[in-house]
Structure formats: C-alpha cells, structure tokens
Write a structure and sequence with these properties.
36% helix, alpha/beta, two-stranded parallel ribbon, 9-stranded mixed sheet
C-alpha cells in the first residue's frame, strides 16, 4: 500500500447503477493510503457514500454483488400514486435492516446528501438527522420514485440540480478534492450487445413488476433504436440533463481531480452487474491517481 498521507474530500455523483463504480474508487483510495474525511453525494453517490461513512461498505458490497435480475425486480414496490412509479420504501427498508440505523451527525466521516426541493426549486444539503431518510430523499428520481417528505418539504433526487455536488466540500480542510462524474464520455469497448436471458422462476409479485416495467419500456438498450419505451425516454432525458448540469457544476467549482465513469458503462437499472462496475471503478481510480493511461483528468501538479 502506498502511503500518501493525503486527506480527501470525496464527491460522488448520481447515475443509477453506474454509481456502483463509486465502491471500486473508494476501495482503491483506502488501499493506497488516502484518508477520506468528507463525503458529499447525490442519488447513488449519497447512498454509497452514506454507507461507507457508516463503516458498512463491505456489508453492502457482499449484498449487492449477490443480486440477480429477479432480485432487482423484487426490490421495486409499485406505487398507485401518480407522484411516482415506485414507492422506494422496500429498498430503504432492506438497506436499513442490512446496514443499521445511523444519524448523520454521529458518523465518523463528514457527510452531506444532496436533494432537490420541488417547491423552492433549490438544492438541499442534508447533513443531520437519520441517514436513510437523507438517502431516500436524494435517490427520489422524478417520476420513478415518489418524492420524500421531510420537515414539510417535498424532496426529490439531488441529481436534478447538482449531480456532482462539490459545493458542500468547499470549506473542508483536506489535502485534495476528488469528484466522481458518472456522466463521462462513452467508451465503445463497454458497449454490450442485447442478450437473451432465459426466464427465471419468479413470484407472482416479481412477475407483475416485470410485466409492468416491460410494458413501459420493453428493454433499455444502449444502442440506437426507434421503439424506445416511455420509461427509457424518461431515464435518458433525465440522464442527458444531469450530464449537462454536471459539466456546469464542474466548471463552476473545479475539484483537484475528476474521475469520469463512462455514461455507457451500464444501463440505469443494471444493479446486478455490481462486480464488474466495482472493478471498473478501481481501474478508473488507478488510471487517474496511479499514473495509468485514460479514465479521467490527471491531478494537477503538487496534489
């Protein structure tokens, strides 16, 4: 292990299942002597960052790497409200049971989850209170998950206004700020052909969820096609907006280092590809911070 003696403010961006690459980056930083003292995250970045701040990342990694396609369907709890397709209560309950209850202000690492207030149209920094309340608010992707009400505010995904939330770390007294952008330029080597997956045994609930999702989107391919379903259009539109906002935020508050994960690393819901996405995160961290080729922006001299 290389001893750098550097303390890190880590900014973890939003981007669905691509956020599993955050795990590999964190693992690489820990293994190479970086000390993460502060974390700010939006959406999936808030989830991974919060679990790491609680000291339970290894527990989450074991769980997420065991997920299969049918398990992801089982975690989706249909909502009969017009505010969102899924309630999001099931996944949060599973994670709370797995990780435990924590209050943000009692975590050993400074932590901020970023959400969006629908009424004021402003970003909200959640740096106190129950950890999984903050995470639930930050991951509430509009139309996909129902908004989360907290202290009278209707909160949705932080990626809507700040997909790479550097601002919460600006006053940190750390050696280096590392931002992870999950909307990086596509890498053609990561494109995968459509695969035919034999149907697995499913419960009645799983089958109903699967049929509901398929009715909305058919499938979510990476390649071009003319028959994109409504859910794919929604998610592609949201991700396009996030990519544009991320570029603006990175230009407004340039971090010391940017690690870019290609936007085509996986489809938005492919959480069952955890092992390869974690590996990709480690490779990108090594490429940027370890002096290897490609992957993102190299650190400036003296960092």
């Amino acid at each position: 292990m290389t001893e750098t003696g550097k303390t890190v403010s880590l900014v973890l961006g939003s981007g669905g299942a691509r956020g599993l690459a955050h795990i590999g980056i964190i693992e690489w930083l820990d293994a190479n002597g970086y000390v993460i003292k502060s974390i700010a995250g939006s959406s999936m970045g808030a989830l991974v960052g919060g679990i790491y701040a609680a000291g339970k990342l290894s527990v989450y990694v074991e769980w997420v790497q065991a997920l299969e396609r049918r398990d992801v369907l089982e975690l989706l709890d249909l909502s009969f409200r017009s505010a969102g397709l899924f309630k999001g209560e099931r996944i949060i309950a599973v994670l709370r049971d797995l990780i435990g209850d924590y209050r943000i202000e009692e975590l050993p690492i400074s932590y901020t989850a970023v959400a969006t207030d629908l009424d004021t149209e402003k970003e909200v920094w959640l740096s106190k209170g129950p950890l999984f309340d903050a995470i639930r608010a930050s991951i509430a992707i509009p139309t996909l998950l129902t908004p989360y009400t907290m202290e009278g505010r209707s909160l949705v995904d932080g990626g809507l206004v700040n997909p790479v939330p550097i601002a919460p770390t600006l006053r940190d007294l750390t050696s280096i700020t590392i931002a992870v952008d999950l909307s990086g330029p596509p890498d053609p080597s990561l494109d995968q052909p459509e695969e035919e997956v034999p149907p697995a045994p499913q419960s009645i609930y799983q089958r109903r969820v699967r049929e509901f999702v398929e009715a909305l989107q058919s499938k979510m391919p990476l390649g071009e096609r003319q028959d994109r379903g409504p859910l794919e259009i929604i998610m592609r539109s949201f991700e396009t907006m996030q990519a544009i906002v991320a570029r603006l935020k990175l230009a407004a508050h340039p971090p010391d280092v940017v690690i870019a994960i290609p936007g085509n690393a996986c489809r938005f819901f492919e959480f069952y590809r955890a092992a390869e996405l974690i590996k990709l995160g480690r490779e990108k961290a090594e490429a940027v911070l370890g002096g290897g080729p490609g992957g993102g922006e190299a650190p400036p001299p003296g960092t």
